[in-house]
Design a protein that fits this description.
3 helices; about 80 residues; four-stranded antiparallel sheet; about 25% helix
Length: about 80
Amino acid sequence: MIGWSDFENFTLDKKIQVLYEHGSFIMAIRYYNYKINLYLLGRHYIEVFINHKMASIEKILPLDTTHTRMKFYSDQIKLPHELL
């Protein structure tokens, strides 16, 4: 399994490849100018920010459980209690 510290240091292209090959897609939300895909990689939830107007992935970040976006996720799926 790929360690979190290794994943964080990958290039954007390598992160995309790893998520495609080893991650599990959970769900997608719309948030301002982004479509955000939520993935599970090992025990880590990861957000992929897609600028749908430009059809490009702009950033890949760990799920910020303190952000107001959590409401969009928790309204649709049941996340583990340790994330809430």
